[in-house]
Design brief:
about 800 residues; alpha/beta; GIY-YIG endonuclease; Arc Repressor Mutant, subunit A; 7-stranded parallel β-sheet; 6-stranded parallel β-sheet; about 35% helix; about 25% strand; DNA-binding; isomerase; nucleotide-binding; hydrolase; zinc; DNA replication
DNA sequence: AGCACGCCGACT
DNA sequence: GTCGGCGTGCTC
């Protein structure tokens, strides 16, 4: 007797223990781990993942049988199944949510699906399933048990496709196609006899020669220069046979010319050699590739990926959320062509599903994608790359709160392959590990072609503001006018976080800070006070600056729309493009803006952080940062690191080609070390300085941290429950553990729910894990009373 | 989510 | 006595 162990999806009471279900006779030997099933649960039906097939169950009661199969082949492979268990444990979440995050968005919908025959022969051989149609809605009732077994077999053999009911534009597209009927020799001999002025036919034959017996979509041929009449002739001569081919939606908007590996500089060569040795030696070594902007990290990635492929393995490359622009993808694709699959948030469900399918079936061996692509169903991975490893988008902010770097390391250990963490400004965590020898440090200290770093000047906005009230300093305005005259391009960066509520004196730059924590206080509009997130300190909002007694102490923050208006007013002839969340909401608009700017159809590109990352415009010779310190004022231990990284990154945007670049940084804190050291691009000194701050403040990487957040509709309830948790923690942890809070969050009320948090900082607490597991279990019961608890292991911030 | 079970107050 | 309120626990 076969019994399936199923992780069920129960909305409330979640559990990591599987439930046992009988496998009905017709599904014996067909159900395998990794498939989703529908099962009876109480008096209704729910879905779940089969995680194991066993012979007997230790459940004492009477087992129920599986109701139906959702997948005919596993959607989660053995590796990812194991990963989900580790992840649930690591992130204090439930297996079911881990498994669901591993699937591409569109597939999480369960009910309906369609079966699509890949060719006519399947339709003809199985009238009992297809009834003469190419595509049918899957309907359990209409099919016999035997047919279902057939369907599973047909999918295994790749003769049919299963399409889940995704959004409307996710339908598979069948297009007119032609199958080549010639082998290479035949095509070549035809090529020799065809008239030399029959361009279309020549092109067609050369394609057939290069790809014998392949099937091509009609417009694939047309776009490559094969004429209509040439196709007709080809059909007539028996070179081609008309057929239908499933069109795989192509998320690459344009085709890319093939490029060859570039010659490496000595330090690049050294890095590639070390990485390739680890690939060949099947070592799960982590490398930290530290290279200044323009030092050629990408080429190191590309040649290492090539090596992984040469050894018959696959490669995974992760990039930050916003960076996944055509520029980067284009470079990967120009080297590896159709072996590349791309997974990012701008894809439609249908596109994402197609890419996922290409990876799962082994058609794509290189995956480029954002955070969630770390779960790409690649097999036999030979290399994992995380570009801009310090980027905050690698940590998921809601359940399961995983850190992509850690998942990558797990997969590397499983696949016996190296991980490369690349950055110009590594996170302190990673760099500290490299210093301890846990990671191997590889450095690329030189810019390719020895381009000089841009000249960076810092403008003190305190004195500027005293002169005039413009967002732009005189020096920046003059520099902009100069570039406009020279017909060169300009990028203006506005920190979106400047919107946030903090106080600052416009005359002396004073920002109220907590007396206990050395961190800026946050405006709490609802309580009319300044609060500290770390210790709960509160004080009234001052009406005059406590330092210089000026009355001009107020909120700080400018939006990108206002900036656009001002810039247009000051420079009426300039062509201005704005890029922020508002202008890039529509699919493809991000690319459209980049293309337009790249083609020099605009003079000024202004926007938020998203313009800082990974973009490479050779015509840009001036970068202006309008409010460099707005991130700095955030009441968070990582704000200096973020500021330094951002400024270093944007500075790299200026003057990458043969023109000298200039960067103007406007700030109210010209003396802050993050800004000073960004001016000289001195990562080493920043690292040393910041490490001391982290050490003194008992922050990561010196301490481990956990953030517990509770919320409920009642402020009293939230607070009292959080105090209960505090009591519980105190009784289970050692005296060395630092427990901060509970304190109300900066935005205490969201959607009429009140948020409180507790921060735990520790070095060694063997009892912490079981204590948090217990809190997680208890939180299920408390949910009934409206209280939600979130546990964030190693949070990115304390806010 | 839904249903059973069981422990309390109000009532034919 | 018992009907039914709802808080609690369970569903393979």
């Amino acid at each position: 007797m076969q019994i399936a162990q199923v992780i069920v999806d129960i909305p409330t009471r979640q559990t990591n223990n599987p439930y046992s279900y009988l496998i009905p006779d017709y599904l014996v030997d067909q159900v395998v781990p990794g498939m989703r099933v529908e099962v009876p649960f109480g008096n209704r039906k729910i879905t779940g993942f089969v995680v194991a097939i066993v012979n007997n169950s230790d459940f004492a009661g009477k087992l129920k049988p599986i109701s139906s199969l959702i997948d005919f082949s596993p959607v989660i492979n053995e590796e990812l199944l194991q990963l989900s268990s580790w992840m649930a444990d690591e992130t204090y979440s439930f297996k079911i949510s881990c498994l669901q995050t591993m699937l591409p968005g569109g597939m999480r919908i369960k009910n309906k699906k369609r079966l699509i025959a890949n060719d006519d022969s399947v339709v003809n051989q199985h009238p009992e399933i297809f009834d003469g149609n190419h595509e049918i809605d899957y309907n359990r009732q209409k099919l016999t048990d035997k047919s279902i077994a057939q369907i599973i077999r047909l999918q295994k053999e790749g003769k049919i496709q299963v399409e889940y009911n995704l959004t409307h534009h996710a339908k598979p597209i069948m297009m007119k196609a032609y199958q080549g009927q010639l082998d290479q020799g035949q095509a070549d001999s035809q090529l020799a006899v065809v008239r030399k002025n029959a361009k279309g036919q020549l092109k067609l034959l050369s394609i057939l020669s290069a790809h014998p017996h392949e099937t091509f979509l009609r417009n694939q041929l047309i776009t490559q220069g094969v004429t209509e009449s040439a196709i007709k002739t080809g059909e007539k001569n028996g070179w081609l046979k008309q057929t239908l081919k499933r069109h795989i939606r192509n998320p690459f908007l344009r085709s890319v010319a093939h490029t060859n590996p570039l010659t490496l500089q000595p330090d690049q060569k050294q890095a590639v050699t070390r990485i390739n040795q680890a690939i060949s030696g099947k070592q799960d070594q982590v490398f930290l590739l530290e290279g200044v902007t323009g030092s050629g990290k990408t080429e190191v990635y590309l040649q290492s990926i090539a090596h992984a492929l040469e050894t018959g393995r696959t490669a995974l490359m992760l990039v930050p959320e916003i960076t996944l622009t055509p520029q980067i993808v284009g470079r990967i694709r120009s080297r590896f062509g159709n072996q590349v699959a791309m997974l990012h948030s701008a894809l439609s469900n249908g596109e994402r599903y197609d890419e996922w399918q290409r990876i799962n079936s082994g058609q794509a061996q290189v995956v480029v994608g954002v955070r969630s692509a770390v779960f790409a169903p690649l097999r036999n991975i030979g290399l994992i790359i995380i570009d801009e490893e310090h980027d905050s988008s690698y940590k998921q902010t809601d359940n399961p709160r995983y850190q992509t770097r850690d998942v990558a390391k797990w997969r590397a250990a499983y696949n016996h392959c190296p991980v490369v963490l690349g950055s110009a400004t590594p996170s302190l965590e990673s760099r500290a590990r490299a210093m301890k020898g846990v990671y191997k440090l590889l450095t690329l200290p030189h810019r390719i072609n020895r381009h000089a770093l841009p000249h960076v000047s810092i403008i003190d906005m305190k004195t500027e503001m005293a002169k005039h009230r413009s967002i732009l300093s005189n020096q920046l305005s003059n520099a902009i006018q100069d570039r406009l005259d020279k017909h060169e391009q300009i990028i203006l960066l506005l920190n979106r976080r400047g919107y946030s509520a903090f106080l600052m004196c416009r005359d002396c730059g004073y920002v109220p800070k907590c007396p206990n924590c050395d961190i800026s206080l946050t405006m709490h509009k609802n309580t009319h006070s300044l609060n500290c997130h770390y210790c709960g300190h509160k004080e009234p909002i001052p009406t005059v600056c406590p330092k210089c007694h000026s009355k001009r102490i107020r909120f700080f923050g400018v939006g990108s729309e206002q900036l656009e208006e001002q810039v247009k007013q000051l420079f009426p002839t300039a062509r201005v493009l704005r890029m922020d969340v508002d202008t890039t909401r529509k699919k493809g608009s991000h690319e459209a803006i980049i293309d337009k700017f790249g083609a020099h159809k605009a003079d000024i590109l202004l926007g938020t952080q998203m313009i800082a990352k990974g973009l490479d415009f050779p015509e840009v010779t001036l970068v202006g940062v309008l409010n460099a310190d707005s991130a700095l004022q955030f009441p968070d231990f990582r704000s200096s690191e973020r500021t330094f990284q951002l400024l270093t990154q944007v500075s790299g945007r200026s003057g990458r080609a043969d023109k000298q670049g200039e960067v103007v940084i406007q700030t109210f804190n010209p003396d802050h070390y993050a800004i000073q050291l960004a001016q000289t691009q001195d990562y080493e000194r920043f690292y040393a300085t910041e490490m001391r701050v982290r050490h003194d403040g008992k922050y990561p990487p010196y301490y481990f941290t956990v953030k517990l957040t509770g919320n409920s509709p009642s402020e009293n309830q939230t607070a009292s429950e959080m105090f209960d948790i505090l009591t519980y923690l105190k009784s289970h942890l050692s005296a060395q553990a630092i427990i901060l809070g509970p304190t109300p969050k900066a935005v205490t009320r969201i959607n009429n729910r009140y948020y409180y948090q507790i921060i735990i900082k520790y070095r060694k607490e063997p009892n912490l894990k079981p204590a948090l597991d217990e809190i997680l279990m208890q939180s299920q019961k408390k949910q009934r009373h409206g209280l939600q608890i979130a546990i964030d292991n190693e949070p990115l911030d304390f806010m």
